[in-house]
């Protein structure tokens, strides 16, 4: 017998498990009605109809409300300093604004102390957790020097194992692209690698081209980092096909895709991670999620929380936008924000509620997960358990 | 000397007052930087730079964050029973759904007890308050019988003085339009009037035409109720011009307007209340807020919180949508959701933070009100004072 305390959450009106074994009758979400979940320590140990639930040390009554897996936000840029709301306001009102951009954040981030950066990330992570996000990926990318990229990742690593080295975010003003790629693939990579699981490149006109991205990802791979890619966000280009060719687990943005890109995604199995908060916050056209799904592409949703193009941390808003603007069904959108988000981080321990999986659960103040899209903007999270511990409300 | 306890909220990095006396230098929001507000009892007694603030019994430090007036949500339909998330899901995914519509909610509302209706409204009002809404209008309109309209308003009156009789929401299935207008302007009005301040008509193809709306508003006026109107939501029509001709304080929706409608609004001073959550939740085109404002029309924002076309209660989301989709500036949107919302209810005691006004304030977990649009979907409300009492966090 385990000595860990066990908890049964019963009275769950609608439980989304994402368990493929429950797809028959439960759809892509593996829904169970009138359900219970038993948690022991950090893991789920039992899922099923409430009437069959075993006893446990602690009993929690969901009161007929819905429970979903915690959100898995596979794309965020939380390590930064400074405020860019004035730049956002200028962009949305069509006013000129010359002082903005990533480089503003880089200057503020370099000037911040480790403690300031850590405190700022802690605040955003807590904000995310209060909104139901229990797993996150955090990128560097506002340091852009050997020292500042390494410390950005060291800060991020305090909050998640899924840290991503994004030295190749933009070329700093004081260097050439060639010299900077040499730095990123050389000393910066050496300093960053001990703190990172992933390496990422912003592959876009004005940032890094396909050949540079290929070289950076290859260097990362040699240092034990797995590749991810920002691609096809602002323009058509070869980034998505590079991701598919390299067999990356996910490629992010995918807003401007041609038929060959879609075919490559469908045949490679590389996940297309869509970030509709960006299109909302920049007034750009949305990616064609419906077309991707209908073509057989696996789609994940993530926040892209960052101070420039999208400062939302709300996975629920991403779901609402996916339904309103990208014609995903509410079930597809929730699955994309949980199970497929986990797959985009090559994680099989989160995003699914089944015996042996992480006890990362969200209790909604609603009878159905559909309310995440039906009630846009409304804070519906009534409780969050992370690794079995109730973390919201605190 | 008053015996009421006084509180000074100091350390306000950015205070939006909506005080026209502060427009010079403070813009439409009458912004004050590094500000303080002093509250005594239910009223604001002092506003100004923190360095000049008088002493008070209690001191609260805003820590450099922003404070805004509480939102004034001038259009909501909170008195109902039942859940229509399945209808929402069908609509958004293009599936047929025959069991939906207002009449479904009418049947559930009639079947609910007074206690059930009251409990449901209380839950939604608390949800709104936690999101910063301190003044609300609540309509009837899911009773559609003498008894059920009167009790709906009696329930609503427990939560606000701004109750609106909307017997003329839709013609029930078991009667003719002519007979129903006779009922609404006769016994139903008599039963409803003691519980209502306003009377409203859904003036639209398939609901009530302009002549019927005119007759219903006239009868309401004879019973001491002031008129409001749902108009031009789904089609072009004469509703907006009727509202202007009658000098109504506000006309709501205003999605399909021709040039004559805009001219009538600009010259009459009738406020156009826009409800962008509806367009978000029904995938309809948005009203042209930018065009209205540029033509000199006063624009308010409200939630239209209702179980059918828009089940958001988030005024912050309405602001974000107004900025993203209707090209209002963040300042215009906040003003529309506070001061102009108050004007749309002919209220001069709320929506403005100045001596003598209601102490309805919201502390944001952000340095600027711009974050309401810059951080869509993120719950940014850190504290709410309603009539001087701290009601959030509880």
UniProtKB/TrEMBL annotation, chains A, B:
InterPro entries: Amidohydro-rel (IPR006680), HutI (IPR005920), Metal-dep_hydrolase_composite (IPR011059), Metal_Hydrolase (IPR032466). It is found in: Cytoplasm. Pathway: Amino-acid degradation; L-histidine degradation into L-glutamate; N-formimidoyl-L-glutamate from L-histidine: step 3/3. It is an enzyme of class 3 (hydrolase). 4-imidazolone-5-propanoate binds at residues 84, 142, 169, 233, 309. The keyword Ubl conjugation does not apply. Its cofactor is Zn(2+); Fe(3+). Coiled coil: none annotated. It catalyses: 4-imidazolone-5-propanoate + H2O = N-formimidoyl-L-glutamate. Binds 1 zinc or iron ion per subunit. N-formimidoyl-L-glutamate binds at residues 142, 306, 308. It holds the Pfam family Amidohydro_1. It comes from the Bacteria. Residues 67-386 form the Amidohydrolase-related domain. Zn(2+) binds at residues 75, 77, 230, 304. Fe(3+) binds at residues 75, 77, 230, 304. Catalyzes the hydrolytic cleavage of the carbon-nitrogen bond in imidazolone-5-propanoate to yield N-formimidoyl-L-glutamate. It is the third step in the universal histidine degradation pathway. This is Imidazolonepropionase. It comes from Nocardioides pini. The lineage of its organism: Bacteria, Bacillati, Actinomycetota, Actinomycetes, Propionibacteriales. The gene is hutI.
